[in-house]
Amino acid sequence: MWHQRADVVVVGTGVAGLVAALAAHRRGRKVVVLSKAADTATFYAQGGIAVVLPDTDDSIDAHVADTIAAGAGLCDADAVRSIVADGYRAVRELVDDGARFDEAEPGRWSLTREGGHSRRRIIHSGGDATGAEVQRALDHAGATLDIRRNHVALQILQSGGAVTGVQVLNEDGPGIVHAPSVVLATGGLGHLYSATTNPEGSTGDGIALALWAGVPISDVEFIQFHPTMLFDGHASGRRPLITEAVRGEGGILLDRQGNSITRGIHPMGDLAPRDVVAAAIDARLRETGDPCAYLDARAITDFDRRFPTVTAACRAAGIDPTSQPIPVVPGAHYSCGGVVTDVYGRTDLAGLFAAGEVARTGMHGANRLASNSLLEGLVVGGRAGRAAAQHANDAAPAHAELGDVETRVALPRNKLQRAMSTYASVVRDADGLQQLARELEAADPRDLDGRASFEDVALTTTACAVTAAALARNESRGCHHRSDFPDTDPALAHSQVFAAACC
Ligand code: SIN
After folding, report:
1. pLDDT number for residue 134
2. What residues are paired with 252 via a beta bridge?
3. DSSP 269
4. Virtual CA dihedral for 65, 66, 67, 68, nearest 10 degrees?
């Protein structure tokens, strides 16, 4: 067993992780960043960053109102305001770190619109390659950080109610990084499902690590399905996203017969919040038996220049988006819930912080507003890094010891993904969720002897939590649609919290 020491350990290298690590590093702390995978969800983000720019017709109030409307009664209004109001400052800091955004004219950023936004307020880069630019800038700024690749965080270690370090697996075997502060920035859980827009490392690790440490998680039944994942004939793994900005620029959603899918469903039509559009597509596909819907973007001028990432993905699948409608299906995209934190990334366990998709700050409620995730990652990532640095400064030196580890169980990944895709997808019901719970009960003990087995265990732990939360929410709200409870129940306008693994 190897041993190392740090002031702050950051788990993850997407926007929240790198911003947190840079913030702690710039405060003079010894920071170790753990990374298990080569790519991040940040890299694949297309649309952009929702941010209120000064000297526009936009306002913090309007952005807060849109976020809360999308969140379907479960946003924490104070958290939303705090994060939205800090957005422009955080974006300027990212620009100082080298990020560049598309300009409408010299000195004025170009703004696009996405579902649920009442204004054009999304800044973007490289047309639809915003995440790649954010990642490039942060990778460059973080070149001096101590980033350990191929390191899997297996367990948060604690003693006397405070973090003492992380148990880690690398090519030398298991070891411990002793540290008083740990920031979880592990991203999402899209690989609970057979097909997802998420990179392969999105296996619910942070939620599982928190539950094993007895740290509360919340809102995990609210898994956002992006309405337009490219339908390219491949049914599994990471599938390309077709950014919502395509609809923001005039693309329209049609069924195979050429009928609008969202007409009469919501006043914002194809630019309704994501949960509404994904559910409308799902309903139409069930009704018609068609395998996919279509996004007709042919009227958008200069499409390939504005959307080079989408164009490349379509062409790779043999589709020319300038001359034919793009086949799309809803795809698992974003976890609105996660590890419960305040807006500084602080969890219930002293020294444990979380930021980005893994965290539940109260910003997203039951349904995240498009392009609010990079914003949240930037703002809360920076705050969590500063808070972790301060905690490390104030805390006694950490000495971690391995306690007794409970047996971890896992279902084979394909089986788990099939069951989740069948029973806990865009629309759920009690019978299906109970069947899912029974299948999860058949999970077998698994040794954590490598990244794959750790991920299978994390996926199973996370799936059990999602299933329990989805079963307990007997209503439809935000991204959680129950065919047996199609209405929203005002009495259930509160979050559910879980503080222990249910399997
Ligand atoms: C998109 O570009 O449609 C995705 C943006 C997001 O998930 O916020």
Report:
1. 98
2. 296
3. G
4. 50
Report the separation in Å between the CA atom of 408 and the middle of ligand 1, taken as the mean of its atom positions. 34
What's the pLDDT at 405?
Answer: 78
CA separation for the pair 274, 333 (Å, rounded): 11
| Cα(111)–Cα(49) distance, integer angstroms | 10
Whether 454 contacts 169, CB under 8 Å:
yes
Structure tokens at 314: 């379509």
Domains of the chain: residue spans and CATH: 2-187+334-394 (3.50.50.60), 230-330 (3.90.700.10)
Return the closest-CA partner of residue 40 out of 156, 138, 154.
138
Calculate mean pLDDT across residues 419-434.
Answer: 98
Query: Cα–Cα distance between 72 and 454 in angstroms, integer?
Result: 34
Q: pLDDT at residue 369 above 80? A: yes
Q: What is the 3-state composition of the chain as percent helix, strand, coil, each rounded to the nearest 5?
A: 35, 20, 40
H/E run at residue 8: strand 8-11
C-alpha span between 324 and 241 (Å, rounded): 17
R_g over Cα of the chain: 21
What 3-state class would DSSP assign to 193?
coil
Distance of CA 232 to the CA centre of its chain: 23
Q: Which of 462, 213, 222 is nearest to 364 (CA)?
A: 222
Residue 373 Cβ < 6 Å to ligand 1? yes
CA of 174 to the centre of ligand 1 (A): 37
| Token pair recorded at residue 351 | 């020294």
Closest residue by Cα to atom 8, ligand 1, is 371
Mean pLDDT, rounded, of the chain: 97
Q: How many residues does the chain have?
A: 503
Cβ-based neighbours of 341, under 8 Å, separated by 6 or more: 347, 353, 354, 355, 359, 360, 361, 380, 384
The answer to whether residue 404 scores a pLDDT higher than 90 is: no
Please list, in sequence order, all residues whose beta carbon lies within 8 angstroms of the beta carbon of residue 443, skipping any fewer than 6 positions away.
Answer: 409, 410, 411, 460, 503
Is 263 catalytic? The answer is no
**Among 81, 274, 368, 386, the one annotated catalytic:** 274
* pLDDT value for 502: 84
Q: Can you tell me the distance from the alpha carbon of 279 to that of 370, in angstroms, rounded to the nearest whole number?
A: 16
Note whether 340 and 465 are within 8 A (CB): no
Mode of pairing for the β-strands spanning 152-159 and 162-170: antiparallel
Distance, CA of 211 to CA of 499 (rounded, Å): 6
Give the bridge partners for 108, in sequence order.
105
How far is the C-alpha of 276 from the C-alpha of 273, rounded, in Å? 6
Q: pTM score, two decimals? A: 0.96
- pLDDT (0 to 100) of residue 235: 75
The mean per-residue pLDDT over the stretch 409-438 comes to 98
